[in-house]
Description:
The complex is a heterodimer. Chain A is mostly beta strands. Chain A contains no helices and eleven strands. In chain A, strands 2, 4, 5, 6, 9, 10 and 11 form a seven-stranded mixed beta sheet that branches. The relative contact order of chain A is 0.32. By secondary structure, chain B is mainly beta. Chain B has strands spanning 9-12, 18-23, 35-40, 47-50, 64-69, 72-77, 86-93, 98-100, 104-108. Chain B is globular, with a radius of gyration of 13 Å.
Amino acid sequence: xxxxxxxxxxxxxxxxxxxxxxxxxxxxxxxxxxxxxxxxxxxxxxxxxxxxxxxxxxxxxxxxxxxxxxxxxxxxxxxxxxxxxxxxxxxxxxxxxxxxxxxxxxxxxxxxxxxxx
Amino acid sequence: xxxxxxxxxxxxxxxxxxxxxxxxxxxxxxxxxxxxxxxxxxxxxxxxxxxxxxxxxxxxxxxxxxxxxxxxxxxxxxxxxxxxxxxxxxxxxxxxxxxxxxxxxxxxx
Lengths: 117, 109
């Protein structure tokens, strides 16, 4: 079965770029949409955006100017870049497969990214 | 694009039924039959419980059911069990975009 795993730095300095990778195992990224979702500590889920395996994307309007989701450099990976981060970007970041229109399933285990100097 | 509105908390005793509401707009819930629900236990990733308003993925107990009326959706859990205590999030398609609810904490008394 498909499994997802997020990876990347757990600490990012303010104004720098947050970069995460999601590695998909047990299946191919072909023919699906793939998404990033985040959850600030103690708060709810926020959709960041999604990409189709071919590279087309859609982003949350509130983050659109700072976000890029793209196919990873290695096979079966996709990535998230968020520029000019502030403390408000501190969150657990999840990657997920988007099955059909709105089925986020499965999810990665999540990775905490803290923005602090 | 505003978050969907959910009650902050609901509670029920074992064996009872609870319903969690999720209110959106004519641009999201009201426009599409693409509402999903996620269960999240503390420190864990969310789990898909309902999709396409009322469909259950394989492995999700039939105690969980979903519905929609107008601009609002609901998740009903019948025969409450202790392991149902968790946070629940609704999610709606909004025309190439996605919006989540703020989450509801379910307490099993």
